[in-house]
Amino acid sequence: MSDSSLVRPYRGVAAGNRIASRRDALIDAALEVFAAEGWSAISARRVCEQAGLTRRYFYESFDDIDALTAATFQRIAGEVFAAVQAATADRAATVPELARRAVAAGLDVLAQPPAKGQFLVMAQRAGGSIGQQRASALDDLASIVQTVHSTDSEAASTIDPREARITALAVVGAVLAIVDSWLAQVSDLSREEVISWSTAAALGIFDAVTARQRQPC
Questions:
Q1: Which one of 184, 196, 207, 209 has the fewest beta carbons within 10 angstroms of its own beta carbon?
Q2: Where are the domains of the chain?
Q3: Which pLDDT belongs to residue 201?
Q4: Residue 165: CA atoms inside 13 Å, Cβ hemisphere, count?
Q5: Do domains 1-62 and 66-214 have the same CATH topology?
Q6: 19 class by beta-carbon count within 10 Å (0-12 exposed, 13-18 middle, 19+ buried)
Q7: Shortest CA distance to 141 belongs to which of 187, 71, 202, 196?
Q8: Per-residue pLDDT tens for 114-169?
Q9: pLDDT at residue number 142
Q10: What is the 3-state secondary structure (H, E, C) of the chain?
């Protein structure tokens, strides 16, 4: 195949769109293989078989299997971020309600299908380039938490930006610890209990920081 065939339209579809479509298909296939056969089954050969693509197309989008799992992690994390952001868009709602909506929205993404949430847990254990993706995802979620917390007029007036950021990171860490343990089936909790505990953890941190600000120097 000539180089020009890789960039010219084929059946009316631009080359870039074809590449993006194949990349998405490989990520879909990675999740399907993981759901059916487990983490150890994810390989370039097996994912290509599942996607109905040749190995050449795998390396068109990914340098190796680590890059594929990182991309899969990034996609799921992006879906969680979008869902949480949408759930907290109503600035007229109270902070407790926004916190509950955020957790519920994130869980809904990770449970549809359940392989999404389980993939995130296994990917973090596997290490590799996932570490960078996870750090970025935590930072993105912390930015939402910080915005939600700022809707509390008392918090907004007493907490400086540096402390607000630390508070947001603490909230994200506490909530994800609960969610991750549930996804890994370590915690014997129902979905509603996960939401309740996660919301309580977030509000507890908010309250503790606000109380700290009231203490005399």
A1: 207
A2: 1-62, 66-214
A3: 97
A4: 4
A5: no
A6: middle
A7: 202
A8: 999 999 999 988 877 788 888 999 999 999 999 998 887 666 666 788 888 999 99
A9: 96
A10: CCHHHHCCCECCECHHHHHHHHHHHHHHHHHHHHHHHCHHHCCHHHHHHHHCCCHHHHHHHCCCHHHHHHHHHHHHHHHHHHHHHHHCCCCCCCHHHHHHHHHHHHHHHHCCCHHHHHHHHHHHHHCCCHHHHHHHHHHHHHHHHHHHHCCCHHHHHHCCHHHHHHHHHHHHHHHHHHHHHHHCCCCCCCHHHHHHHHHHHHHHHHHHHHHHHHCCC
Q: Model's pTM, two decimal places?
A: 0.86
HSE value, Cβ hemisphere, 13 Å, CA-based, for 186: 8
Q: Residue type for 7, please?
A: V
13 - beta bridge partners?
10
Q: Which amino acid is it at 41?
A: A
- What are the Cα distances from residue 131, in Å, to 102, 126, 178, 191? 23, 9, 19, 27
Given the candidates 3.30.450.20, 1.10.357.10, 1.10.10.10, 3.40.50.2300, the CATH classification of the domain at 66-214 is 1.10.357.10
CATH 1.10.10.60 fits 1-62, yes or no: yes
For 20-45, how does the pLDDT look when each residue is reduced to its tens digit (9 = 90+)?
Answer: 999 999 999 999 999 999 999 999 99
